[in-house]
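[Discussion] Sanity-checking designs against the backbone

I'm trying to build intuition for which residues belong where. Below is a structure token string of 230 positions. I'd appreciate it if someone posts a full sequence so I can compare it with mine line by line.
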């Protein structure tokens, strides 16, 4: 009788082992993907800084700026098309930096959780797998930024607290300081609640189960703009 019980339990043990191996492989794959994203984000930030410096040089009086097709200033017809598309929309048009085929709004810093990430001005699932993206609005009128919950990214929001400092350095080099005022959980269908807000900056990501959205609301604070050196 005991032998029958043992034999019956073997398939269950085997299935359990398979599930454990699968979970381990998934964890390792996610960890590798997270490391890759973090490495690419660091490289992108360096390129953004370099491009910002180039744009500042291009803004000097002796530089020619009136020819959008002038390759000497790194212009690209696709940038002009994107700018016109955004200008026709409801959002204000923020200055952007063009790096590796993506228009970047700037760089986001949250010193308290040692987070430094580039922010795309364009939203797509492909770009969102690499960096956070502007979801809605503008720096001037109120901005909503979405990002995946990678450990090297918005997955650190579990450590964010009220009063934490947030700094966004725009593509033009202007520093915008914020303070975390509220952290709330929203459902995926609460789009209006996400974007219709009087907070100057909102950052959000999925919970680890993916069923809800961790939402970090921030107020402007001019006192913080000198904390970040770009």
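Best answer:
Here's mine. Compare freely.
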């Amino acid at each position: 009788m005991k032998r029958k019980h043992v034999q019956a339990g073997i398939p269950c043990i085997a299935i359990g082992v398979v599930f454990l191996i699968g979970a381990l492989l998934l964890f390792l794959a996610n960890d590798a993907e997270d490391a890759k994203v973090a490495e690419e984000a660091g490289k992108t930030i360096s390129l953004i800084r370099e491009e910002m410096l180039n744009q500042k040089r291009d803004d000097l009086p002796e530089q020619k700026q009136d020819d959008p097709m002038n390759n000497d200033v790194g212009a690209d017809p696709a940038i002009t098309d994107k700018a016109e598309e955004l200008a026709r929309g409801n959002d204000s048009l923020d200055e952007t930096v063009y790096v590796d085929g993506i228009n970047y709004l700037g760089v986001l810093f949250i010193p308290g959780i040692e987070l430094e990430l580039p922010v795309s001005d364009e939203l797509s699932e492909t770009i969102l797998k690499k960096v956070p993206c502007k979801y809605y609005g503008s720096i001037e009128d109120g901005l909503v930024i979405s990002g995946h919950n990678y450990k090297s990214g918005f997955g650190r929001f579990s450590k964010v607290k009220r009063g934490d400092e947030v700094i966004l350095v725009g593509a033009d080099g202007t520093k915008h300081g914020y303070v975390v005022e509220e952290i709330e959980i929203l459902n995926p269908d609460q789009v209006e609640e996400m974007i219709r807000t009087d907070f100057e900056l909102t950052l959000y990501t999925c919970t680890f189960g993916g069923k809800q959205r961790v939402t970090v609301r921030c107020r402007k604070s001019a006192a913080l703009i000198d904390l970040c050196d770009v």
